[in-house]
Design brief:
By secondary structure, the chain is mainly α. 73% of the residues lie in helices and 0% in strands.
Amino acid sequence: MGDGTKSRKMSPMARWQPHAPERLLVAALELFEERGYENTTVIEITERAGLTKSTFFRHFPDKREVLFGGGTMTGLLVDGIDTAPAGASPLEAVAHALDAIGREAFPSDRREFSARRSAVIAANPELREREALKELGLIASMIDALKRRGVPDLTSRVTAELGALAWKIAYERWRDTTNRDDFAELARRTLTEVRAATALC
């Protein structure tokens, strides 16, 4: 039993061959599942990951932030909007960003891992609060990126809210382990559905 459990725990690291942030993420998620978020320490996370405490704090300010990837997602989102074709509409620019996020952050082999991460977050009020704050930050970043493209303020705000809603729904669908669609495909389809729904309001 012990050997089997250890093999299961280490398999994500072996499969992805991650660098330090990813190793810390994998270790933290395993420990949060086993012991609970409140009962897990930074030292335990670093020991599980085979890294030092100083390495941990070089990448994350506290154990909560391990699950939220620093500014990686925000960077992908902003870059995706910034690099959308010049003639793209605001929603098309957001769709372009969601495509980039799908390629970089949500490959199919991360689906099960993402579902586990979401379950840990859902079980803890502090993590749920951080998730909500993260969503607000992403919306603000989308607004700023759209405004840099010359999109009027109100249009930027509405587009960012619609984009965030589409992202949230698409992510919920994608992390379902029975779903086999790519995240980018789901996100574009969901964005179209959200846009159509607004016409009925």
